[in-house]
Amino acid sequence: MIISTRGRYALRVMMDLAENSSGDYIAMKKIAERQGLPLKYLERILPVLTQNRIVEGIQGKGGGYRLTRRPEEYPVGEILRLTEGDLAPVTCLECGAEPCEKRAECRTLPMWNKLHGIINAYLDSVTIADLIAGNI
Amino acid sequence: MIISTRGRYALRVMMDLAENSSGDYIAMKKIAERQGLPLKYLERILPVLTQNRIVEGIQGKGGGYRLTRRPEEYPVGEILRLTEGDLAPVTCLECGAEPCEKRAECRTLPMWNKLHGIINAYLDSVTIADLIAGNI
DNA sequence: ATAATACCGACCTGAATGGTAGGTTGAAAT
DNA sequence: ATTTCAACCTACCATTCAGGTCGGTATTAT
Predict the structure, then answer these.
(1) Tell me: the pLDDT tens digits for B11-30?
(2) Do B25 and B64 meet the contact criterion of CB atoms below 8 Å apart?
(3) Residues A60, A71: contact at Cβ < 8 Å?
């Protein structure tokens, strides 16, 4: 399994924000209720999205979250890379990984590299708008 | 990360068996030494390969393992599915998973399905012989 | 008999998942 | 000013999984 609940919940939140965008900020409590997800857990997932300007978060009464782009401008891959970390198929390809000493002669690495590329290319070809429209 | 050491080690073993096939059975101890992998751990990984006739294992002195097909007849995907379980990107798609009650209306499922297909198609297009030949 | 080998089950450690609990900060409504 | 609602933050916790290790048993050639 690659994609944990963190990434899946983040996608659900993004879709909810996209579908209920009236210009107002939307409280996470509303989204949690609508989507049937644990509020406290969502609160732990969302900071990375606000820090990366994926969504805009406003505190205080009447606050909440709002998209910063149009739904068709959010590739699914971008959301997943932020919430899940790299979508690397093997640890060797992860960003922070200490380089494997067999890297130079490794004969499986090209395969993992290509797989990594294929996965990212596909996930970046789908947008939040596509998910909503059922355009898969 | 999708692929753990189980699957990666299994591939290394298969490549080693393919490259050192003289018709004789090859002791796992030899492979562990050559590849620098923990023998005891390999012994825990291999039974699933023998049970599925991927390799043939013979006990006793002079025993060991031997491929049952030619290297070009082993798709990487087959080895990985046996050692890693499904290569499903989300738990919802795993074989033994209890069906999600939102499955019918889930709008991300088609994307996961397609991704799953893409991953399997690629990994099944590469064979052990390709890995050895650097044919990626 | 002995040595070498696959095979098998129990155990162990550390990290990650999937949360929960409780509080702090900030802004708007009263 | 006070209250209320919201994001934000830190610590904790239970369960599962990764990546092994350990010790032994069954089987076969010499």
Answers:
(1) 999 999 999 988 899 999 99
(2) yes
(3) no
* A129 Cβ under 8 Å from any chain B Cβ: no
Structure tokens at B8: 């990666």
Strand partners, B67: B55
Q: In the CATH scheme, what is the code of domain B5-133?
A: 1.10.10.10
Distance CA A77, CA A122 (A): 8
CB B68 within 8 A of CB B53: yes
The spacing between the Cα labelled CA in B46 and the C1' in D28, in angstroms, equals 20
- Residue A89 backbone dihedrals phi, psi, to 5 degrees: -75, -20
CA–CA dist B136, B131 (Å, integer): 7
Give the separation between CA A106 and CA A129, rounded to whole angstroms: 40
Structure tokens belonging to residue B57: 């294992």
The answer to whether the beta carbons of residues A17 and A66 sit under 8 Å apart is yes
Give the pLDDT of residue A106.
94
Cβ of residue A103 near strand C, that is under 7 Å? no
Residue-averaged pLDDT of chain B? 94
Going residue by residue through chain A (136 aa), what tens digit of pLDDT does each one get?
A: 589 999 999 999 999 999 998 889 999 999 999 999 999 999 999 999 999 999 999 999 999 999 999 999 999 999 999 999 999 999 988 877 677 878 889 999 999 999 999 999 999 999 999 999 999 8
Q: Judge: A110–B1 Cβ closer than 8 Å, yes or no.
A: no
Question: Of how many residues is chain B composed?
Answer: 136
* Angle at CA of residue B115, ends B81 and A36, nearest 5°: 105
B10 and B79 Cβ atoms separated by less than 8 Å = yes
Element (H, E) at B56: strand B55-58
- Whether the full predicted model's pTM is greater than 0.70, yes or no, is yes
Identify the helix (H) or strand (E) that includes residue B103.
none
